[in-house]
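#dry-run=false #mode=assembly
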Amino acid sequence: MSEKAFVLTGVEKQLGDFRLKIDDLSMDRGFVLGLVGRNGAGKTTTIRILLNLIYPDRGRVSVLGLSMPRDESTIKRRIGYVSENPSFYEDMTVAWTIGLVSRYYPAWDQELSQHYLRKFDLDPRKRVKQLSKGMRVKLALTLALSHRPELLLLDEPTSGVDPVIRRELLEEIADMIKDERHAVVFSSHITQDVEQVADYVAIIDDGRVREYADKERLLDRWCRVTGRTPANGRDISPLFRSLRTQGDSFSGITDRYSPEWERRLEETGVSGHRVHRLGLDEILLSLSGKEI
Amino acid sequence: MGPLVSKEFVQMRSQLLQTVGFLALALVVFSRTSPDMVLTFFNVFPVVMAMTLPQLSFMHEERGHTFCFLRALPMRPWEIVAAKYLATFVVMVGFGILLLLVGTLVIAVRPTVLMAHLTVILLLSLLLAAISYFFHFWLGLKAARVALLVLVGLVGGAFMLAVVPDASAVTALLSSPAGSS
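#status=ok
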């Protein structure tokens, strides 16, 4: 199982004023990739391109070692998908919906589906229109997981659901990647969720992947450094992405923090400096050009 | 494809009940006094159904955002279209049989005449439904409505000119200045 979970190469898509442009984005199996970005940044478009729900204007899309759209049906049989607002036929029951979906997946596991129904406390006799948003997400998750997908695509699944369901969902994701054949792509603007479960993080802003790295390395690199400016007047701004000074104090953001970087900072003559790791939300804000 | 077809029936059910209701009303009101009106209704109804069922089906899908749900499944787009068309076909044939029974038993039209008449109307309606589904998938809901209206207007106009016994007189009447006749 050496093939990648997915590879996007030179993918471009114009949707009105919005343009998605991904030069290269890929992911190995056995990991969770968190797609982080503001609303409208391009997370949903990226996921929909992986599913061929949106056709890219150019570029190559490969999923589980197969080419999209050439092998669309084969790929979809091996993928699970939960959209931000799961939509089903309102007048139909949970059991009917499961019956419909199960026909299209040869690997559908009826026992597993029953297990999720019990676990999520879903009544198969209920009509979809009687389900709350949280229960719909649970139904979507049941449908997405019951054929044991190799790649699970979750588009903002935790937005608008209560903390209990959020926790259950994040636990399911963590359970799923215990088997290294599987992979999860998880998009969210709730950065705490991504920090909790993701192994890798891709930060998308304005249709571009601004950062893509191992989560821990990313969080190690991005720091806020505060201290007193050098008495000798040396310019320290080249060491920072953004820098504010007030009197003899400074506060700067760097995305290149390392012991070597800190040594170079000390050589400039700064004093009393302190390093604070940034959270994903602060990194996102900084990449968006917002002051933090 | 069975569940997809059954879902179409569930979505159409209120429209079907409404049509059966109109049919019953037409029968009660006109069957004794003016059977021709009932026959006119028989002629018009399949064409109206052929226009409205695809529109309703697409409206349901768009309002419920369910195309995304279907497209995420490993099914081919033609399966979605085929299920919709199959459901429409079953409904039209079912109503055709119902109309045949009503026409022969209640209005006492000769079965062979009525059957031949209904067959032509149903075939035309099924062709119209197929075009309507094609337009809806190709153009989307709003543009498909306009395209269908234009198409029906053109075909209807051509049909009227072709079958009206004295079409030239009608054309002359339409083209003559007001009051000159």
